[in-house]
């Protein structure tokens, strides 16, 4: 067993756990990371690994928000929590656009858009968009206080579907950030930062489970011992780091806006473009 490859997998897990939930694009960072830290694996395994490692991050959401996402409660008998079931129905509606496009054109999208130029441009464009949205919110604070959606229960099916369109944009263009796109969509639709972030986290559960299942089916279950070790190491690391990242973000947004992430995206996008155009 190659210890160096396991260390690389752990590093990928750290990056996944941090960037999956912060609105800075996990896919973008993973694509860029692969340019500098090469796992000694086949292209087919790497393609699967970069998606399935997200299952570790998803388990962090399930653990942290179990009481909000589990639709059953136990007393003398099991009862269904109506509000939770309705919330899941809204999440399903929100996931429809990305699911249709991902199943039908997923491979074509990967082939066309998964490169450093698209990633860099998406980082910059959505970074600027984040800053613009936050400045707009700041200039309309009084009006927003009257219209802000402060509860998951108040999200309508129409609003959920529109947020799903923003998720679709992220599914097509790596570097956009799924969490970033859906949070921006939520803010534009008058969701509070906390509600936008939570709904984004919950949307990720079926999306990532579905994407991971498709990649595993495509790759098959014939893992070598080394491949299985790399995958498990990455997933466990992503889970642990995601716990920390999610708790940090939920605490951060109670007192701060998202502009710092916008500036980070712009700087990173420019640096990556310069690196590949001038140095590489």
Describe this protein's structure.
The protein has 280 residues and is mostly helical. The protein has one domain. It contains 13 helices and 2 strands. A two-stranded antiparallel ribbon has the order 1-2. The longest helix is centred in the middle third of the chain and has 32 residues. The model has no long low-confidence stretch (mean pLDDT 88).
In summary, what is this structure?
This protein is mostly helical. It has one domain (3-279).
Helices and strands, with pairings:
Elements lengths: L2 H17 L6 H11 L6 H10 L1 H11 L1 H4 L2 E3 L3 E3 L1 H32 L2 H24 L1 H7 L9 H16 L5 H11 L4 H27 L5 H28 L6 H21 L1
Antiparallel strand pairs: 1-2
Helix pairs in contact: 1-2, 1-12, 3-11, 4-11, 4-12, 6-9, 6-11, 7-10, 7-13, 9-10, 10-11
Function: Catalyzes the dephosphorylation of undecaprenyl diphosphate (UPP). Confers resistance to bacitracin.
Organism: Fusibacter bizertensis
Pfam family, one: BacA
């Amino acid at each position: 067993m190659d210890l160096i490859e396991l260390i690389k997998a752990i590093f990928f897990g750290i990056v996944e756990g941090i960037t999956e939930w912060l609105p800075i694009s996990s896919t973008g960072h993973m694509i860029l990371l692969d340019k500098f830290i090469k796992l000694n694996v086949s292209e087919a395994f790497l393609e699967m690994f970069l998606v399935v490692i997200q299952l570790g991050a998803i388990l962090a959401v399930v653990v942290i928000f179990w009481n909000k996402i589990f639709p059953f409660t136990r007393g003398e008998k099991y009862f269904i929590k109506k509000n939770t079931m309705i919330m899941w129905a809204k999440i399903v509606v929100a996931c429809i656009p990305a699911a249709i496009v991902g199943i039908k054109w997923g491979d074509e999208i990967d082939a066309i858009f998964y490169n450093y130029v698209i990633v860099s441009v998406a980082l910059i464009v959505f970074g600027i968009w984040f800053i613009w949205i936050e400045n707009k919110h700041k200039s309309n604070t009084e009006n927003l206080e009257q219209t802000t959606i402060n509860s998951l229960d108040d999200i309508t099916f129409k609003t959920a579907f529109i947020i799903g369109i923003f998720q679709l944009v992220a599914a097509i263009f790596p570097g956009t950030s799924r969490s970033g796109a859906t949070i921006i969509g939520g803010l534009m639709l008058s969701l509070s930062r906390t509600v936008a972030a939570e709904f984004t986290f919950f949307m990720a559960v079926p999306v990532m489970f579905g994407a991971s299942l498709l990649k595993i089916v495509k790759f098959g279950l014939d893992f070598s011992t080394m491949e299985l070790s790399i995958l498990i190491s990455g997933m466990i690391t992503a889970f642990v780091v995601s716990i920390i990242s999610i708790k940090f973000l939920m605490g951060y947004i109670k007192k701060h806006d998202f502009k710092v992430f916008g500036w980070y995206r712009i700087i990173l996008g420019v640096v990556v473009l310069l690196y590949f155009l001038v140095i590489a």
